[in-house]
TrEMBL record:
Limits of the HTH arsR-type domain: 252-323
InterPro entries: ArsR-like_HTH (IPR011991), HTH_ArsR_DNA-bd_dom (IPR001845), Metal_resp_trans_reg (IPR051011), WH-like_DNA-bd_sf (IPR036388), WH_DNA-bd_sf (IPR036390)
Stored PANTHER family: ARSENICAL RESISTANCE OPERON REPRESSOR ARSR-RELATED (PTHR43132), HTH-TYPE TRANSCRIPTIONAL REGULATOR KMTR (PTHR43132:SF8)
Protein name as catalogued: Helix-turn-helix domain-containing protein
Single GO MF descriptor: DNA-binding transcription factor activity
Entry annotated with the keyword Disulfide bond: no
Pfam family, one: HTH_20
SUPFAM superfamilies: Winged helix' DNA-binding domain (SSF46785)
Length: 326
């Protein structure tokens, strides 16, 4: 749990960013590219990247990001500078201008949690040519992985912001709208977080940054002295609902979006079905049904509850709308 302590003036200085931060999106995107479960809501993006993306640039970028931002308790803050709010160019300029002592300190901390290869040594020493090469690699990766999906990302951010803030909501309305990712208990904002820590704003206010590729829990800077920032996963269900209301579906037909088997499982649920019933209806194994229903439950398309010795699956409103029966 991350506990963010508000004091006088912090509410007035709290804001939600109007767009994603390009550096944070790159950090999260490489993780989505390497996940074994293939997050359902990102299937259109994954298919686009794998079909049309520059494989050399993407593979090189994933290797780079996996070293610099490993899974775990820490990665260097200099890689996601606050200047990302002004766009990719400003963020890359900030990275190239990182003070040498800060680079040395942050790489030393990174080395303590995840051993780094020899090619990071010039970066840790603040070598200008190495920093330039790093930012050029970042720019190529962004152009290959994030930029092609920019229109949908922008639409998702706008939809998420409208749902959380309303037309003219107050800051406290905004914070309450972050539930269940965050729980506003004045004067403390409790944030779902991978590690237990406290952050005192001390009049600096808080910047909340939506992320298209962030998953499950928000992320904050490791250094409490940096401008207080929380990057949070936007709510993809709202984007789907908005597209359905306008008569559009992501990436074409339902089968193309979900995959043939998952779309068949969603249709076979009908008014409700157990795992065994779905297996019999579709001629697939119960274990296969369970894998697909787990993914669709996480995406908000199905609900699952225990019914005696069986597990009953039912479509949600969103699941029915996607199927065209809502």
């Amino acid at each position: 749990m991350l506990r963010i302590h508000f004091s006088a003036g912090d509410l007035e200085r709290t804001q939600v960013a109007e767009r994603v931060d390009p550096l944070w999106e790159m950090v999260f995107s490489w993780r989505r590219l390497t996940e074994p479960d293939g997050w359902l809501v990102l299937q259109p993006w994954l298919r686009h990247i794998r079909r049309d993306g520059d494989r050399r640039v993407i593979s090189s970028g994933v290797r780079m990001w996996s070293v610099l931002t490993p899974l775990g308790p820490y990665f260097p803050d200099f890689l996601t500078p606050p200047e990302g709010a002004q766009g990719l160019g400003s963020a890359l300029d900030a990275i190239r201008s990182t003070p040498r002592q800060r680079l040395k300190d942050e790489f030393a901390r990174l080395e303590g949690v995840s051993p780094t290869p020899a090619w990071t040594r010039p970066l840790a020493a603040g070598d200008g040519a190495s920093l330039l090469e790093l930012t050029e690699s970042m720019a190529r990766y962004h152009a290959a992985v994030v930029q092609p999906y920019g229109d949908l990302i922008d639409e998702a951010v706008e939809t998420d912001r409208l749902h959380r803030t309303g037309v003219a909501g107050s800051v406290e309305t905004l914070l309450r709208g972050m539930w269940p990712l965050m729980n506003w208990r004045p004067p403390v904002l409790e944030v779902q977080y991978a590690y237990d820590r406290d952050l005192h704003l001390n009049g600096r206010g808080l910047r909340l940054v939506p992320s298209y590729f962030c998953r499950r829990t928000p992320v904050a800077f490791a250094d409490p002295g940096l401008p207080p920032t929380v990057v949070y996963p936007l709510h993809h269900d709202w984007t789907w609902q908005r597209q359905l209301a306008s008569g559009r579906r992501q990436d074409g037909a339902l089968a193309a979006l979900l995959g043939t088997t998952r779309s068949a499982v969603l249709a076979a649920v009908g008014a409700g079905a157990t795992t065994t019933e779905l297996a019999e209806r579709l001629g697939i194994s119960p274990s296969s049904v369970s894998r697909h229903t787990t993914v669709m439950r996480e995406a908000g398309l199905l609900t699952t509850r225990r019914q005696g010795l069986s597990v009953l699956h039912q479509r949600t409103v969103l699941g029915s709308a996607l199927l065209g029966t809502g």
